[in-house]
Amino acid sequence: MAADLVGRKVAVIVTIGGDVAALAAKAATSTLPVVFTVATDPVRSGLVSNLHRPGGNLTGSSGYQAELEPKRLGLLRELRPDATIIGVLVNPNAPYIDAQLNDIRSAAADIGREVVILNASTIAEIDAAFATLRQMHVAALSVAIDAFFFDRATQIVVLAARHGLTALYFRREFAAVGGLMSYGTNADEGYRVLGVYAGRILKGEEPGDLPIQLPTKFELVINSSTARALGIDVPSTLIARADEVLE
Are 25 and 87 within one domain? Predict the structure, then answer.
């Protein structure tokens, strides 16, 4: 798809869908301007060499969602201090998976928790991952940042409820469809950058001169109805820190 856009000689390529789409655009052209929104550190993933002055033909925004995995594990411990083992659902095909797993394992060690990594890159593998959690009697789950998991949000939330799991997600949309709790950046902020930067490039500015925009707000969303259904008493300290409590 990226190569097709290059062949059409479009003025600007805009990518949505995380690192996979942005990396595909980078591989397809070194001349056409590319504006991306990604979930990870774009320097760490190799998209740009510098945040303040990216150089080359790429710029955009980063939600730094993958770098928030340690924070999510800490929130799960706060929500379920009795859960000594935490399941983490990851997509093994994600381009940033190695760094993501290192961050997760390091964070788990820091808070004295064991993590069980569950791989899923298909619908069937998501089902199998939840079956494994049940067999292992794991009560807490963190769903790691991934565009595929976002696409399957309803399936994942339904499975978590069915198995009675204390689950934490990376986007508000999971909590909105019945997920227990989410913590992450505001995606709309990144989408606005796409439009603004595409417009500035169309007016003549160079993408390499436009700094990578980083998140300014992190949102904690709690679904109190789901908590009651699961019999979970959410600590008042978490409620007080929540940006939104859904009923």
Answer: no
